[in-house]
Amino acid sequence: MSLHVLTPVLHSIELGAAVGLDVSLKLECVQPSGSFKIRGVGHACARKMADGARRFISSSGGNAGYAVAYAGRRLGAEVVVVVPATTSERAKSLIGQEGAHVIVHGRSWQEANEHALSLLTPDSAFIHPFDDPLLWEGHGTLVDELAAQMDRPDVIICSVGGGGLLAGVAAGLRRNGWDATGILAVETAGAASYAAALAAGRPVEIDAISTVATSLGARRVCSQALALAEELTVKSHVVGDAAAIRGSADLLDAHRLLTEPACGASIAGLQAVRTQYPEARSAVVVVCGGVGVTREQLNRWLAAT
Ligand SMILES: *Cc1c(COP(=O)(O)O)cnc(C)c1O
Predict the structure, then answer these.
(1) What is the pLDDT of residues 203-224, one digit of tens each?
(2) How far does the centroid of ligand 1 lie from the alpha carbon of residue 159, in Å?
(3) 112-149 pLDDT, tens per residue?
């Protein structure tokens, strides 16, 4: 049983015309958990349950924790999500609505994560938000679907937090023989841990996270995100918060889809395709989605830029 749904591909005349490309959107924002995360998380949870796990533990108050909560409810497993005190009431209530047990512990993600790990028992499994081969295998199903939905695009654009989505897209491109497709890996300047890793030649910890695109806020990317750049063409692109917010607004205006700036960053990335991949004629944007946004919040962000 797969917990994710097959998502539509929308050919966007409007966003394409603005950048002179043939643009398609892979709508991960319509997944039941509101983001692509359920692909990998659902796959990992189902596999760990088959291996005997009866309880899932997460330390993400964001889309990863929400996807674990959704997966646990669907699979009939108990879920514990440990979040720091800084987590919004809305995030806690969304996760709670899925029947997960939300524990508030500590003031930083590190403290919450340590507590989460201390709760592990022999029949429970920790679900990492981005660094697990099962996640990448699951995320890759979005490319499997694309291969049945359209011709191979020249470029695929995805956002990068810890690099799980990027690793999954790469795995999907390879297993579908789409190695010639270039990847544009987009992040915001206040969460540019992938750009830092590429520059250093290894995953490095960036000093601080400072961006509205909180779902991209991993201080260090997984090493797989770097390793795959040796087999496929991956180019990094960093945008400002204002561009990411504008990207979400553009998507909302063009297609009536509400997404986090973490996703808007990839829409903004469209503008860099012609310079980063001068030969490219077509691009797919992974509309990664995210539940951490409301109409009011997007308006506040827009007003502040
Ligand atoms: C998790 C997430 C990302 C980043 O994914 P990584 O696998 O951490 O790189 C981007 N956008 C949204 C909406 C997310 O939930």
Answers:
(1) 999 999 999 999 999 999 999 9
(2) 7
(3) 999 999 999 999 999 999 999 999 999 999 999 999 99
Structure tokens at 70: 């959704």
Residue 289, ligand 1, Cβ within 6 A: yes
Q: 294 and 175, same structural domain?
A: yes
Whether residue 59 sits in one domain with residue 15: no
For residue 262 and ligand 1, the question of a CB distance below 6 A is answered with yes
Question: 20: domain range?
Answer: 9-36+132-303
| Cβ-proximal residues to 202 (8 Å cutoff; 6+ apart), any chain | 223, 226
Each residue's pLDDT tens digit, 16-54:
999 999 999 999 999 999 999 999 999 999 999 999 999
Ligand 1 atom with least separation from CA of 225: 9
Atom of ligand 1 nearest to the CA of 135: 7
Q: Are residues 97 and 218 both part of a single domain?
A: no
